[in-house]
Amino acid sequence: MSHHIVQTRDLYFTYPDGTAGLAGVSFLITHGESVALVGANGAGKSTLLMHLNGCLLPTQGSVQVGDLPVTKKTTAAIRRSVGMVFQDSDDQLFMPTVFEDVAFGPMNLGLSDQEVEPVVTGALQRVDALHLKDRPPYKLSVGEKRRVAIAAVLAMSPDILVMDEPSSSLDPKTRRELIALLRTFEHTKIIATHDLDLAIQLCPRTIVLSEGKVLADGPTADIFADDNLLAQSRLEKPLSMQNCPRCSPNSSPN
Amino acid sequence: MTNLGCLDTLARQDSPIHRLDPRTKLLTTLVFIVMIVSFDKYQISAMLPFAVFPVVLIVLGNLPAGYLMKRVLWVAPFAMLVGIFNPLLDRQALLHIGTLEISGGWVSFASILIRFFLTVLAAFVLVATTGFNTICLSLEKIGVPNVFVMQLLFLYRYAFVLAEESSRMLRAWQLRAPLRKAMSMKTFSTVLGSLFLRTTGRAQRIYQAMCCRGFEGQLHPARRFHWRMADTVFLFGFCLLFAVFRFANPAVLLGKFVMGIFS
Amino acid sequence: MHVVDALVSPAVGGTFWAVSAGLIGYSCKKVKSEMSDSIVPLMGVTGAFVFAAQMINYTIPGTGSSGHLGGGMILAILLGPWAGFLVMASILTVQALFFADGGILALGCNIFNLGFWTCFVMYPLVYKKIVGRGLSPSKLFWAAMLSVIVGLQLGAFGVVLQTVLSGKAELPFTAFVLAMQPIHLGIGIIEGFITAGVVAFVAKAQPQLLDVSLPPSDKPAFSIKLVTVSLLIAAVIIGGALSWFASAHPDGLEWSMFKTSGSEELDTPDNSVYTNLSKLQEKTAILPDYGFKENEVSGAESQTAESWPAVSAGTTISGLVGGLLTLILAFGIGILLKLRKKTQASATI
Ligand SMILES: Nc1ncnc2c1ncn2[C@@H]1O[C@H](COP(=O)(O)OP(=O)(O)O)[C@@H](O)[C@H]1O
Ligand SMILES: [Mg+2]
Do both B62 and B132 map to the same domain? Predict the structure, then answer.
């Protein structure tokens, strides 16, 4: 698998209760790209992400990761290369301590105790959270939880990082630190968000989702300059592009 | 809920007792409790020497004795409720101190209270020196099925999260019903119903998160327990001590000795 | 209400530990083989849900006082009998360890009282029978109501039986039953309303959740045979164990290993023990029995329980004096240890 591409073809998904989650989604993301997936609440972002590692299987259409189509049989392999950071870190940190939680994935990959230790330590160091090692997850702040959740995913050494609203419910400073952290990762990144400023800072490319369909797909700067498109997908222009004197239109997005 | 957190915070200290293998503490506590409850209902003196076990653990384990006592007294009314009938129903004189006659009922009531105090204290001390999660993981080591241990861990982990959620719902209700102290039963079941639906939603997401990290039906806790010499000494030392206390009743011997000196 | 450690004898506690452990093992096996892996987090989180629900009070109509949720029936309905039983057992374990509700030795009794009847008897025989295949609101209501009430009655009766058989509390059997059953009828009706309300809510919002707990439809929902057999086995174990304790050997009650201690003490040439012994044996004859007829197992059991103080010599004055002294000694050891720790700490600084 030299190129960690992610491709969806005409993806449809309907929830068991009849709600349409996705209604025909196609795109191709190539190796090393950072792509923002934006759209209003209920647009289908989370549903789409769940398809990228086989948590949900399409009702119609297909998903391909690298050389493998995502099917029931390939999920084990797919999940090794696609790491998923959930929106609510509490859902992801289910083990008694931070260390055990980060070790959960590697242990499932069959690593021995001695092998797991350095992997966990390395992953926690990566997100600057090694000092939290022995804490129980319920005693962490939201920002710390988010970091640990990311470490837990990094510990599986995925090629592709998928994140669902990583900046939601973070205070401005923690959010800035998180963005700085994510910028250091070289993985292929797919980030669902309605934090358009985050999208500008991290992702050169943006896919706009609305009611389960791709409304637009292109360079982030172009998409956010298109007022019509934003209004149609119930999004608002990022502050840094709103031409207000304070947020300075020509300041660099960094 | 606060108690849940407090005992667990105590468990994250470092002391000779905390460093023991959880299985050691679990087994010793179990032996301790069985010994205590195996005494007949009029026994008092023979149980008192057993207090040395929780006392030693509290001191060596750096536990706040006052806090633990308070917790024990908090639940005391429970045992008193049933025991209080003993003095009323069993009026046969059993003990004569000078001219004072004490009925069997009072003796057995006192016995129940001592029993209660010792067993409850031992359980609290176990949790406060070991921690709930560690106890669970050690349960798996002694043969409790993985499924049971896993869901016990989940229960404990999410008790805090759901407590938070339910207090949010409670607050929302209070803001809209400022004049009422408690919900009507109808509102209550609706609130519970929606709390349960959120609960299942969360369980689904947790399961997905587990699968995303390669879960295949078995939990492999990364914690290994090491049985050391100290564990063997602790376990056998205390069991031997319990056996001596149980069968020789040093209290009576000591009492006789002291009374012998004075008479 | 729970059975507590202080009131339970090792025989009763041990028997129900064994029974409950067997049921837990069986349920784990069933959950593993019949249900999807995703049930495990659901079980844990549902247990947490019960704790969270206990933080919310509701008004009991007509009384002004308030109560909170508890009970195995709602778990059986929402998760199915096996998973429901395991969650009930977990909740009781946490309560025993953190809140000293019940206690570690009494845990087996409490798991049995609150989990067995609801999950393995009421669920298949009452709830499922009434609800049938469909989910009609009125059927759901009556099924929940009835199974909760009867389940709680059986559980309460269990508490009485276990406490009386343990012989630590003096409260006579009949009085205990007359107090417990009506109280738990009241609690049961209220809990029945709550349970029915929650089940109705879930049935309306996400009926498929209630289907999850139904075993696959091609198999018989829960064979009567299985239930009868498990009931029978439980009865045989409990009955056998109890009759063993109540058998002609008085020491059967307190485990034969304690017998040696008794005889050793008898051998010591101590007059006070002997006089005490004879006095107490007279006494046992006139002690009130527990409301059982003399020829019944428990009658014999309570007698043996009473004859025990005879050999323990714990009720003599020297026993009490010595007891207090040892207690002081125990605390003395504690204080010494503490002092030593302090000096060590200051030495290292
Ligand atoms: N578990 C579910 N069952 C039924 N419908 C769902 C479920 N999860 C999401 N949906 C529905 O699918 C649509 C897409 O939701 P989602 O992917 O969560 O959107 P987003 O993440 O963009 O906010 C919404 O209409 C939502 O109501
Ligand atoms: Mg979402």
Answer: yes
Q: Are residue B110 and residue B199 in the same domain, yes or no? A: no
Domain that holds residue B161: 145-223
Q: Shortest Cα distance from A82 to chain C (angstroms)? A: 21
User: Who among B89, B191, B250 is closest to C170 (CB)?
Assistant: B89
Residues B185 and B254 in one domain: no
Closest-CA residue to B235 (of B99, B53, B7): B53
For residue C7, the chain B residues in CB contact (below 8 A) are 79, 82-83, 112
Here the ipTM equals 0.85
Q: Which domains does chain C have, with CATH numbers?
A: 5-210+222-263+281-294+308-348 (1.10.1760.20)
Q: With contact defined as beta carbons under 8 Å apart, do B218 and C28 qualify?
A: no
Report how far residue B28's alpha carbon sits from residue B36's, in angstroms, rounded to the nearest whole number: 12
Ligand 2 center to A48 CA (angstroms): 9
Q: Which one-letter DSSP state was computed for residue B90?
A: -
CA-CA-CA-CA torsion sign (A161, A33, A44, A176):
positive
Neighbours of chain A (3+ CB pairs under 8 A): B, C
Cα–ligand 1 centroid distance for A38 (angstroms): 14
Chains in touch with C (3+ beta-carbon pairs under 8 Å) read A, B
Count Cβ–Cβ pairs < 8 Å, chain B vs chain C. 414
Shared-domain flag, residues B78 and B189: no
Q: What is the pLDDT of residues C229-278, one digit of tens each?
A: 666 665 555 555 554 444 333 332 222 223 223 333 333 334 444 344 33
Nearest to B212 among A79, A97, A134 (CB): A79
**A6-94+157-241 — its CATH code?**
3.40.50.300
Question: What domain count does chain B have?
Answer: 2
A229 touches A216 (CB < 8 A): yes
Same domain as B50, residue B173: no
Q: Are residues B134 and B262 in the same domain?
A: yes
- Spatial separation of the C-alpha atoms in residues A236 and B67, rounded to whole Å: 54
> Under an 8 A CB cutoff, do C309 and B37 touch?
no
- Tell me, yes or no, if A136 comes closer than 8 A to chain B by beta carbon: yes
Q: What is the pLDDT of residues A166-182, one digit of tens each?
A: 998 899 999 999 999 99
Which of B83, B113, B119 is nearest residue C103 as measured by Cβ atoms?
Answer: B119
CA distances from C114 to B67, B69, C102 (A): 30, 29, 12
pTM of the shown model: 0.80
| Residue tagged 């959960």 (tokens) | A104
Same domain, B193 and B238: no
B63 with B130, same domain?
yes
In chain A, which stretches have pLDDT less than 50? 1-2, 248-249, 251-254
CA of B161 to the centre of ligand 2 (A): 20
